[in-house]
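Give me the fold.
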Amino acid sequence: MLMKKASLAGAFFLSAIWLSAAQAFCPAPAGLTSVAVQRVVDGDTLRLSDGRNVRMIGLNTPELGKKGRSDEPFAVAARKRLEDLVAASDGRVGLRPGKESKDRYGRTLAHVYGADGANLEAQMLAEGLGFLVAVAPNTDLIDCQQAAERSARQSGLGVWRQSPVLQADQISVSGFALLSGRVSRVQRNRGGIWIELQDSVVLRVAPNLLARFDAASLESLKGKQIEARGWVLDRSRRGGLKEGQARWVLPLTDPAMLQVAH
């Protein structure tokens, strides 16, 4: 029994150290609405007792298998960890709704906090159980969430244990991806700014998002090695692929989704 007590004390001590780190990443604001969680759907989505589905802002976790597909690596671990975090918060969480409060599926978009004030997206990112995503206008916590992901990446935790970054010419399916490539061409037209990576993938900044980006910096990317992240679309599936165009397009939703490799 002594051993058990000692190990529990050790676990508590570690979680106390971790908690202060998590709070440093994204401290909780005052006056959060407390809500009851019915169940954890996956690593970045909660179902509340009032029937709402909440998609956590800034976090994208690996997909659980559906329609005969197998689970992506760490998808089950991410869901289990979020279940544990919600349980540790007595089944209630604090919500901070995004500037854009609903997504196209009707889910509530919000930052989620445990009873101890820790931001659960930052906690998941710092443990390597998901990827940072930035979708304007819901980018208020981008700096602290980037710091949380950076610490997991530097430590090789979770999804960073083996590099998840694909080369541009390795893209073969649509969906969320981190990719790396050299910029072969940058074009600007009525459709926005188009950044081509080695004839394989083109990154697009839509006209309505151009104000969030530094256009001159984007236009100076030719010849540089970059890393980008987001949801890759297959132009050939929609019949929209023209002669000489790259098959894959990745819409950039915020400057945080693109980095120049150093």
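The chain has five helices and 14 strands.
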